[in-house]
Amino acid sequence: MKTGFAMAIHFHQPVGNFDHIIERACEMCYVPFLDTLIKYPEIKMSFHFSGCLLEWVEENRPEVIGMVRDMVARGQVELISGGFYEPILPSIPPEDRIGQINMLTEYIETKFSFKASGAWVAERVWEPELPSTLYDAGIKYAILDDTHFIYSGIPKEKTYGFYMTEDNAKPVAVFPTDKTLRYSIPFKSPDECIEYMRGVVKKDSNALFVYGDDGEKFGEWPGTYDWVFKEKWLEKFFDKLLENGDWLETVTLSDCLRERSPEGRVYLPTTSYEEMLAWALPSGSQHQMEDLLDDIRSEGKEEVYKPFIRGGFWRNFLSKYPESNHMNKKMIYVSRKLDLLKRKIKTSSDLVKAEKELFRGQCNCAYWHGVFGGLYLFHLRQAIYRHLIKSEVLIDKIRYGKKQFVEAVVADIDADGQDEVVLENREFSLYFDPAEGGILKELDSKTACCNLTNSLARREEAYHRKVLEKMKKEQTPDDSEVKTIHDCIQVTDNGIKDHLDYDRYGRHGLVDHFFGHDVKINKFLRCDYTEAGDFIENPYCFEVSRPVGGVTLTMKRHGFVGENKVDVSKSITLPKKGASFKVKYRIKNNGPKSLDTVFAPEFNLTMPDADSDSYALVFDGDGKSFSLRDTAREPKTRKVKVSDSEGRVSFEMSFSEECSVWHFPVRTVSQSEKEYELNYQSSAILPRVKLKLAFGEEKRFEMEIRVDKG
To answer: Residues 199-219: what's their mean pLDDT?
Structure first.
């Protein structure tokens, strides 16, 4: 028997990615890769296309569908299933996992006349119960990393084959992809890749080599297009495979399953690929892990110790980034709402559409962050919210028809042991967290299908110390060789170091600040000031009432501002009808001294197109206009408005009295596959109310927030 070489190529673009980026990937990667493979009909491989990408190419580049269909028809290419919109399977409800896989399997069968039997596990995030999910979805095998197997105690030399695993006696074959090949293809010469395999075969004549990795590294990753296509690396590699056909043959994974026997049984731990496990750690722990690995490398013991050293696992992102956890739990909340409807209604076109929008909102890319922008990219998060809100709008349509409604839900939506409150009508969904400072965590405009508080806090990342280290060195990139995506990041702007500021709290709505009159905006935006009160992120008690024509949430806290005991009450009233809601504050000084301070309820606004030039920030009074990228101060105003020159959606905040208002953009420093970059996250708006309250005196302050489409 010849040595088998199974190549599994994964092609994917996130839900919500820009059209021009996907188009570029087609031009630089997908089409030239397929064009090259078509010239080599003897070479077999397996393809996984995410459903998000398939939908896009079907509409925009249908020739890609045709090219793949032809190769499938002649038996050259096998197609692999998986979650249609590329979800992290353990992070979504079990019934949605099966629904997503079935959706892609059916699409493949319809469009390509092929019955897929394998699954690509998104980001290779594995948890021990997944065999049951895969088995129940008709999947016979899955592709993981050799790292998964090494972490379970299997030595590297025993990873050249496949194993069986199971959950509740539901078996699935699991293939380990070879890390050496993943880091060699296409970054090292074809000869080096072949010689590596030849060296392994000398020790194990029955070896099976599995290569499974992103298709984007063939042209779309930085520096790879010239190397792979202009310098013809891919053609040279295919030529080398054919030249070595006397001992090496390309096979599909189904071929392997049919013609080979498993190496044995394995139970894999909760894990993913090595880099993902490190990214999931808090920044301090990442530093410790990096330093530890440096130490064992310097002692020449990396290969001995590394199998026993690993980071966190994917779900740690939900604790590392509360914004990710909120988005995930909102998705599960919508899924449960939909599931309740499914039990009452057998089927309807709106129910099918609502499920599809939910599934789109489960795409993994915006829920975490590593070498790609991911969670830090506003447009990816916005796409997740857009589809989840669209699903909710369809759920409203099924439940209420054209009737107006208003409701309040009290539940522990984010699974932190404390109840949240959702106020909802046909126009809005307002998510409040009383236990976390009584904040408005999410403001959904259902007419615009966007979350207007979709921000991200500035926090320390482990790679920030690399930013500072790179700043100290002269930036002279070495372009002499093609590098993996983990080695090619460059700092493009030395000024980026001036934005390494870290927030003490989440960037949400109705964040209740108290600070001194001497605090200036530039100090505040850099978090270089003293918070006088203890209201931020501390618990408020709450109650929900239902006045005629609406619903009211009232939250109260007995706290301190300096030495003074201060009571804060804020009531939010959402009417049954209309595109606005009111916020009423009552602040009472319970002494022992007079209170002389500034109260500033911060609101972090995110318009649907981030800081687009189409938006203008205008203060009532002088009518002066600012960009959302500007830092602005207005000494006296009763209204702040963000208008859209393209007439899509506007935001307005009005006050019961004149007050000064601060505005500044919140920007984070993050890494992408190409560079360290500055990302806009939100526009912080702070009405500033000067308080001078004697013992027992109280202040009332009201705001009305309006969102209009058009």
So the answer is: 96
